[in-house]
Write a structure and sequence with these properties.
Elements: H1 6-16, E1 21-26, H2 33-41, H3 49-53, H4 55-59, E2 70-77, E3 92-95, H5 104-123, E4 130-132, H6 140-146, E5 151-152, E6 158-159, E7 167-174, E8 181-184, H7 206-210, H8 235-241, E9 257-259, H9 263-266, E10 280-281, E11 290-291, E12 301-304, E13 307-310, E14 313-315, H10 316-319, H11 324-330, H12 340-355, H13 361-367, H14 373-386, H15 389-401, H16 405-415
Parallel strand pairs: 3-9
Antiparallel strand pairs: 1-2, 1-8, 2-7, 3-14, 4-7, 5-6, 10-11, 12-13
Helix pairs in contact: 1-5, 12-14, 13-14, 14-15, 14-16, 15-16
């Protein structure tokens, strides 16, 4: 039996740790650095100032990874399967699939540290490798494409044929010089070289056509690109990254999404037969975090290894009544904490306005006196969308007491 090289061992161990695909590339510059710089210059990043703040490092990883010689790119399937029937109930707030379980940072980082320990044990290295799970200034999708894990689709997601795009991406930067290659779920012990894909989206534009807010810029069915997302119109950005008011013209297009959005991935043909984790682990491996993706009877959240696990949807009337303590308790250990209470309740107000049911009036009326102007203004918009007598009366009462200029404007527009 031939002796496995260190690169082969690394890729095999990554699979043993539960990653569905792993690839290796030299720690060089990204292929699409110029496109990223143009994207920032066009303002498509919106309020995500952290992207521009470390743009130089994203364009030249050697600035912050001077000792790195190899990047190990890793993908982990998170597809929980078909959403429950409540998914289609406008009284429920939708949560993007990746957030149905514990915070993915807490799931991925221990496995990355374990992979680094595996390499250090074999090489004698004492310094730690650099673990990257989307908070580091690294263009992960660019390097994942370089490593052969997939291709970047028109919706800007990394798509791996056979696995789809329902994947978490992570990277480990190490000083060892490793051979390029990749290993995916069904390849057994085979390491493929060269590490590249020759497939793509073809003429398909389903993701572009399905986007409710038309967040994708100017690609055509025949051009093959460009793959440009205006984040300022993306529901994921609006519900998570945006800290201020959601643009009024986009609110009616957001439906009942309260955290993230899956629309462009739901319609992708590569995801039709993508494996899912129905009542199974988010990541395979020794320590499993189990949850049922489409149980109709389970509670909205429960404790799993000390962290809350969410349902696919949460009742809007419950979200509208969350205070800070309830928010922190309910979403401890999940990605939803990123929105903070003010962001999630803001999103729930927009979803309630799109629901349009008078049942939301008492909760929205109460929010007209919330300490957060952001919440008061979006509650006013929602009441204006409902438009019944109780909603109008609540707005008229709040108008007399409101001192914030932006909130007063929202109330006046709602009344008009």
């Amino acid at each position: 039996m031939p002796v496995m090289s260190l690169s082969d061992e690394v890729l095999a161990h990554a699979r043993a740790l539960g990653f569905d695909a792993a690839g290796i590339v030299p720690a060089g510059p990204p292929r699409h650095g110029a496109a990223f710089a143009d994207w920032l210059a066009a303002g498509y990043a919106g309020e995500m100032a952290y992207l521009a703040a470390r743009a130089a490092e994203r364009l030249a990883p050697a600035i912050w990874l001077p000792d790195a010689r190899s990047l190990i790119l890793l993908a982990a399937n998170y597809n929980p399967g078909v959403p429950p029937s409540a998914w289609h109930d406008p009284a429920q707030g939708r949560i993007a699939r990746y957030a149905w379980g514990p915070d993915y940072h807490d799931l991925l980082k221990p496995r990355l540290y374990a992979l680094d320990a595996f390499i250090r044990e074999r090489t004698g290295r004492t310094a730690l490798g650099k673990v990257c799970v989307d908070t580091a200034p690294l263009l992960e999708r660019d390097f994942a494409e370089q490593s052969g894990l997939g291709f970047i689709g028109r919706n800007t997601c990394l798509i791996t044929p056979g696995l789809g795009s329902w994947t978490f991406l992570a990277a480990l930067a190490v000083p060892e010089v490793l051979d390029e290659g990749r290993k995916t779920k069904d390849e057994g012990s085979l390491v493929l070289r060269p590490s590249s894909f020759v497939v793509g989206c073809g003429r398909c534009t389903r993701c572009l056509d399905a986007c409710p807010t038309r967040a994708f810029i100017a690609p055509t069915a025949t051009s093959g690109g460009p793959h440009i997302l205006d984040a300022r119109r993306c529901i994921s950005y609006l519900t998570i990254e945006l800290r201020g008011p959601i643009p009024r013209e986009l609110r009616p297009l957001m439906g009942n999404w309260v955290f993230g959005c899956d629309v462009c991935q739901e319609v992708c043909p590569y995801n039709r037969a993508a494996p899912h984790l129905d009542d199974a682990s988010i990541l395979c491996g020794a320590r499993r975090t189990r949850f049922s993706a489409n149980s109709e009877s389970r509670p909205a959240s429960r404790e799993v290894e000390g962290a809350a696990v969410l349902a696919a949807t949460l009742p809007l009337l419950e979200l509208l009544t969350l205070d800070d303590a309830a928010f922190r308790t309910r979403f401890r250990g999940t990605a939803v904490l990123r929105t903070k209470r003010r962001g999630l309740v803001r999103n729930a107000c927009v979803a309630a306005g799109n629901w349009g049911d008078p049942a939301a009036i008492p909760a929205l009326n109460y929010l007209l006196a919330d300490p957060e102007p952001l919440i008061r203004g979006h509650a006013a918009w929602a009441l204006g969308r409902i438009g019944e007598g109780g909603a109008i009366g609540a707005l008229q009462t709040a108008q007399d007491a409101e001192r914030d200029a932006w909130v007063r404007e929202e109330i006046e527009l709602a009344l008009s």
